[in-house]
Give the backbone structure.
Amino acid sequence: MQRTFVAIKPDAVQRGLIGEIMQRFEKKGFKIIGLKIIQLDRKTAEKHYEEHIGKPFFEGLVKFITSGPIVAMVLEGINAVEVVRKFMGATNPANADHGTIRADFAHTMERNIVHGSDSYENAEREIAIFFDEKELIPGWTRDLEGRFIQLN
Ligand code: UDP
Ligand code: MG
């Protein structure tokens, strides 16, 4: 089992896509083990996106991600970091595979609907920015999972 950090970005929240995006992750079989709606301040946004500080798109990115509420989630599943990244699609929705969240709901990189951690280390780092460990409920089981439970 692995956990990863996912955020539904302000554009998706504004467009009323929270439920649809969460449902996709649920249907894929991930377990939501942490969940909150929050509006980021600049300091937290900079911490979250620290690898991009100084890049040409950074200011726009911070302005966007702090512009309205986001939904922050911790998802748990087998190989969750990699599977979530594939399921979300490429950073630029124009290049995202058909059927991915970004391909289906977005068409520009600056408004690409969702965030997902790109490595195990970043997942742990990002989870710690958004959640206290006591806010997470790891390892609960879903009755309808069948095969998934036995793969533990
Ligand atoms: N981004 C952007 N312009 C760029 C590159 C990235 O606006 O040229 C935004 C985009 O919303 C992306 C985020 O910055 O999701 C973080 O970039 P990263 O390369 O980490 O992509 P991600 O991990 O989100 O796929
Ligand atoms: Mg990234």
Notes: The pocket of uridine-5'-diphosphate (ligand 1) is lined by residues 52, 57, 61, 91, 109-110, 112, 115, 118 (CB under 6 Å). The domain at 2-134 is CATH 3.30.70.141 (Alpha-Beta Plaits).
